[in-house]
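The records we work with from here on pair a chain with its fold. The integers have meaning only within a learned vocabulary of local backbone shapes. A complete example follows; check for yourself that the lines match position by position.

:::
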Amino acid sequence: MNTATSSASTSFAGGSNGTKTSVGSARSAAIAAVTSYKPSYPPMNYKEEPTSQLFNANVFSKSTMKKRLPKEVYKKLVKTIEAGEKLDCSTADVVASAIKDWAIEKGATHYAHVFYPLTGSTAEKHDSFLSPDGDGGAIAEFSGSQLIQGEPDGSSFPTGGIRVTFEARGYTIWDVTSPAYILENTNGTTLCIPTAFVSWTGEALDKKTPVLRSMQALNTQAQRILKLFGHTDGSLVSSTAGPEQEYFLVDKNFYYARPDLLNAGRTLFGAKPPKGQEFDDHYFGAIPDRVLSFMFDAERELFKLGIPVKTRHNEVAPGQFEIAPLFESANIATDHQQLLMTTLRRTAEKYGLVCLTHEKPFAGVNGSGKHVNWSMGSASQGNLLDPGDTPHENAQFLLFCGAVIRAVHKFQGLLRSVVASASNDHRLGANEAPPAIISVFLGDQLTDVFEQIKAGGANSSIPKGTLTVGVDVLPPLPKDAGDRNRTSPFAFTGNRFEFRAVGSNQSIAGPLVAMNTIVAESLDYCATKLEEATGGDPAKLNAALQKLLTEIINEHGAVIFNGDGYSDEWHAEAEKRGLLNLKTTVDALPILQTEEVKELFTKYSVLSERELESRLETYLEQYVMSIKVEYNLTLKMAKTMIFPAVIRYQGELVSNCASLKMLDYDFDTKTLDKVTALVKALQDSIGELETAGAENGSEDLLAEANYYCHTILPLMNKVREYADELEGIVADDLWPLPTYQEMLFIK
């Protein structure tokens, strides 16, 4: 290889001291930086500022409102927050003044209307409190109108055709039910006001508005059911959520040496490491010190923001972790979940780490989900999905539970579509996530009760037991009436349903909108049936309820499955039961344009047909763009990083063989032959992928998505297959990319 060719094929990356180094040495520099890492922040002192004093410290909470607002204004706000009453806008100036004073005392100089566009991320527009006073000075101002309404650009976010470029007006609207908070930065603080985001025509351009609408629909229908059972206090029924966030942590030096992680959030190349997760030694293992320091810091910030994080632990895959909060109102849980992901990412940077929330950043090990625990309840009735010790006697619970079963079966396709994305496709159906088939796990106790109902009436419940392990010094434990099932996408787990198919990187708003609305429809159906059957006579309720529950279990019991969701047998059985198996996003998203789904959302005023169509278009666009980015990265990395490294190694082998031949030594060309064959295969696969990318010219979004799903992705995987095989052969000092072994295990 001549000097000119060698120089032209060399890629460069910035070294740790700012000098230019070859990619091989850049990888070595990354390893050196990781292994010599020392924390740059002083340790936190929990004795000086206990955690109990931190919680809600940066939140304009109800207790803060009570101290700072006139009594009547406070009462009106609480009625809106707790009872869902209409907001009295005449109090806005008083509230704005109190929030401003509180925020300025916290060091705030700006306020921001925070909203959640269809990108699935968080958006914010910052404005200063300061205004010129006309005398050469400035005063801090914040009016009621500024609190209630903002005006960001309504055309620069994905709208799915609702707004075009020249139609720019959009509004943010204060959501009083989600508290304002202070976001801290090293150089200042900002008052953040959670808001809805709508177009000038009043159509929802965001994730929050449909959540609020769906919660309203659920409350309306749940009140009808409660009235049948004699509960007429009108206490607001709200859906609740507790999302379990899984994520990976990698050192920033590795992250910035991987263009695929940086741009796509997942590795597009990477051979399986010698050791993966097969020993099951990472799950619930001792948390590495550096990671634990990050967790303490992140939790501290989350506590300040009023986010009730409860659990942290190592997850199954090496380098994977989980954080989980307690239940909150679905709307607040959605806002807090976005804030939690932002906080994890920001805090990780302080410790030289990068937080990856992509569903499948590393092939061959478990991906990450966001199990959304969902329930509903009210202040007077408590959790409506709590079965008690004898669920066969709890008629109200059985009705609400039956309504959920009916809803999941009837709208199984919708539930699959709201967790569909290019990234989650890599996770669903693998052995770390539920299959794409939506089914309900009830457990032994509830399955038995519903089987009794089907047979004519429930008379008993499998009792809870006591667990002893044969060691005298260990106390006996209360034993649940049934086991849990981690392979089910929608599992009952004692007093809630856990929607396990949700992806780790997505907003939980879409799944919550779907769950709230389909259950509202099911409660509407049940209430109508019971109202007609009883005619207002409570004495007829039990017989009518038995008939209704029998009908539900007969017509919708096919969705109940307590077995192994990973097994091939279940896939065959599910098909016999008529359950959908929508394996990819392009299979699932068209469900949004079915008449059944359109009627569902329009009937309960959650989404208009136009708003629903806009979401289908937006999600298809996001799917196509995600894979386009990966396509471009695959070509660039294969051609400018992997191929040059392989050619260098091939050149070394050729040179070695030539030298041995000159010395009349015997030599073996097996390695050279294999590398040469793989180099050709890699070249051919790159060319094939490049040609396929140039051939796609469809203007139909669904057709384009299908092309990227069924043509481009398989060709990308083919390029990866040859590159990954070469990674296991090429000399380690020549390989340009941080390996799985390094990224997953060096912390």
